[in-house]
Amino acid sequence: MIQTALIMIGVGIFAGIAGAILGIGGGMIITPILTLGMGLNIKYAIGASIIAVIATSSGSTIAYLRDNVLNLRVAMFLEIATTIGAIVGALLTGVLDPKYLYLLFGCLLVFSGWNMYRKLRRGQEVLQRVEPDKIASKLKLNGSYYDKAEMKTIDYQVENVPAGFSVMFGAGVASGLLGIGSGAFKVMAMDTFMKMPLKPSSSTSNLMMGVTAAASATVYFFNGSILPGIAVPMALGILGGAVIGSRIMQVLPARWIRIVFIPIILYIGIQMLGKGLGVHF
Amino acid sequence: MQEKQSATATEMAQVETIIGRILQVGVVLSAIVMGIGLVIFLVTGDSGYAGHTVPLTMAAILVGSWQLKSYAIMMLGTYCLILTPVLRVVVSIYAFYKERDHLYVAITTAVLIILMIALAIGLTGK
């Protein structure tokens, strides 16, 4: 029993660090460890991973808010899209064939991975236009953050707000319908479509994930998907890991984070395309 | 323009500080409650319930926590953790209101209402 608790704390610390740095929920890391590694029923694994997402989000957001890395207005504005999407997704369960959604999102993620690779090769992280985007200015979405790796304040502009909003709506539908955390989609919407730098994108994604997950977490909480003996030590580990991760992320060069992010986003994308085409691997 | 932008920046810093503090309190509180439950569970080796039963109603969790049953306390801590993002949205409305940013008071209120609808659908639907 103590052994299980220690393993879960360790898994949690790892998932928390990775999740906080990349802006993705711990679900991607937690679910395979719990199902394949520990032989846990998928129902409990999903319950645990939902708690993992919230723990990652809340644990990392404390530092990201204090250090001004994330963009609160972008988060609030886009949360309208993710929360409505989550409701639509939940209502569409059984109506819409998830196959098409897997295909659509698989393609989007692969596209985004390629786009990130191009960004990496160009070495250009921040968008500066002469003419700022009208919608972004009206909504006061343009922001700045202090990059601890480059030791300077970086001002950035946001563009393609409608496209980002649409992708976020889709991310919400996906999380409601497919039960996935969709942190990767959130980073993609901000980084690829709205042209935000990677650090504000991943920290803002972290902040938003918690809100999206909180809605579905209540369902899992009361239907018995949460095993306290597993979920609690894991959540404690994640909170600690996320606090550490949110500090590491700020001193890492954005380039390195991108290098880690690209294979992950491609992996999730290809896995989804596989699911859409009915191929399992 | 420059002046306006820096005013927006200071405003955001204040809003972020308020939200960050509250979030920190929520996270620390849930971590303490979860931690107490976990320690009781590991020390006594007793979940407080027969077999693999987990208390699933709010009433059972509160009563169990009062009786220092470890699973009940752990579930209570987990529930506090689930509420932290919701708390964050609520505090954001207040923070934006205090900074007189009416556009974002409206946007954040909309998010909270949608979130409540989602919670209601979740509780009754599945």
UniProtKB/TrEMBL annotation, chain A:
<protein>
    <recommendedName>
        <fullName>Probable membrane transporter protein</fullName>
    </recommendedName>
</protein>
<keyword id="KW-1003">Cell membrane</keyword>
<dbReference type="GO" id="GO:0005886">
    <property type="term" value="C:plasma membrane"/>
</dbReference>
<feature type="transmembrane region" description="Helical">
    <location>
        <begin position="42"/>
        <end position="64"/>
    </location>
</feature>
<keyword id="KW-1133">Transmembrane helix</keyword>
<feature type="transmembrane region" description="Helical">
    <location>
        <begin position="163"/>
        <end position="185"/>
    </location>
</feature>
<dbReference type="InterPro" id="IPR052017">
    <property type="entry name" value="TSUP"/>
</dbReference>
<feature type="transmembrane region" description="Helical">
    <location>
        <begin position="100"/>
        <end position="117"/>
    </location>
</feature>
<dbReference type="InterPro" id="IPR002781">
    <property type="entry name" value="TM_pro_TauE-like"/>
</dbReference>
<comment type="similarity">
    <text>Belongs to the 4-toluene sulfonate uptake permease (TSUP) (TC 2.A.102) family.</text>
</comment>
<feature type="transmembrane region" description="Helical">
    <location>
        <begin position="256"/>
        <end position="274"/>
    </location>
</feature>
<feature type="transmembrane region" description="Helical">
    <location>
        <begin position="229"/>
        <end position="249"/>
    </location>
</feature>
<feature type="transmembrane region" description="Helical">
    <location>
        <begin position="6"/>
        <end position="30"/>
    </location>
</feature>
<feature type="transmembrane region" description="Helical">
    <location>
        <begin position="70"/>
        <end position="93"/>
    </location>
</feature>
<dbReference type="Pfam" id="PF01925">
    <property type="entry name" value="TauE"/>
</dbReference>
<keyword id="KW-0813">Transport</keyword>
<keyword id="KW-0812">Transmembrane</keyword>
<keyword id="KW-0472">Membrane</keyword>
UniProtKB/TrEMBL annotation, chain B:
<keyword id="KW-0812">Transmembrane</keyword>
<keyword id="KW-1133">Transmembrane helix</keyword>
<feature type="transmembrane region" description="Helical">
    <location>
        <begin position="103"/>
        <end position="123"/>
    </location>
</feature>
<dbReference type="InterPro" id="IPR012861">
    <property type="entry name" value="DUF1634"/>
</dbReference>
<protein>
    <recommendedName>
        <fullName>Integral membrane protein</fullName>
    </recommendedName>
</protein>
<feature type="transmembrane region" description="Helical">
    <location>
        <begin position="73"/>
        <end position="97"/>
    </location>
</feature>
<keyword id="KW-0472">Membrane</keyword>
<feature type="transmembrane region" description="Helical">
    <location>
        <begin position="21"/>
        <end position="43"/>
    </location>
</feature>
<dbReference type="Pfam" id="PF07843">
    <property type="entry name" value="DUF1634"/>
</dbReference>
